[in-house]
Queue: 2 jobs
Job 1
Amino acid sequence: MTHPYTLVLTLSVALLIAWGTLSPPGAPGAALPLSDKQIHALAFALLVLPLGWVRPRAALWFGPLALAYGGAIELIQPFVGRSAEWGDFLADAIGIALGLLPGQLRARLARLG
């Protein structure tokens, strides 16, 4: 059974992603230390990391679900004054792969040892 904290953390990250990507754009502020694409990759890595670590086999369904979530966000963004970008979707996919990798490596090492 998946620990409830894992689900709460995953849902919290999903809500933060929704808030950050679907809020109308504000006035330009100070430059961020990461690019937009890096932020997308980091956010989606953090989205899948908890469940991917605790339940590595969940990657079979959770990875595609997270990618569909990223795609849905890109489709909705034009309705909130933002632009949809294939680059953001690709960054989401890269982040998902990177976020699932630690759990997959841990599971593989456990099977070998």
Job 2
Amino acid sequence: MTGNFLRHTLLVAGKDLRIEGRSREVLYTMAFSAALVVLVFSFALSNAADPAQGPIVAAGVLWAATLLTGTVALGRVLDRERENEAIRALLLSPVPRSAIYAGKLIAVFLLMLAVEVAVVVLVSVLFSTEVFAHPGYLALVLMLGTLGFAATGVVFSAALLRSRSRDALLGALLFPIVIPALLAASRATACMFDPLAPDLQPVLFWLRFLFATDVVYIALGLWLFEPVVCGD
């Protein structure tokens, strides 16, 4: 059972990633949107920001860009399935609904991480912040924060699949739910970026918090995805 679930999950994720690999439509849109957010904030805050607040500003800009690019990815994660009612064929296939959810989650997660790597480098250059002082912790924070956002977003994307106003509603419904994870991720990132931070104990606390919220988000996603996506 576990082997079949894993195989089906990888098939769904691989399908989405292959389609994106051929078109790169979503990836380019995400990268452009993220770069635009970072550039706008860097110019707006270049003279106004207190140098001591630089790490906090850099962390906030990083996760603001992640929020925007993640919304772009989620807007398309099931949109391709909506065209020509391909979602019906996917649901009629002998694939567990939970495997469809997990596959979509992996695809969005990997797309977001690919863009976040470029965003981190851009933030380091434009905000003159030492973002790679703790690369291991930074990678964990990025992965856990992104995982929680994607786990929740896939469910809402499925719920709004047939809605005419899905692009406007997605952010309005999703953002309040993922606020705890985003606040924890931004606080942990700011602590890592601050060269004057005495220790990394706050980072460890926020990492444990992110892990706990991810477990809750994924468990709820596995439970809610089937009734949401099949509820006509």
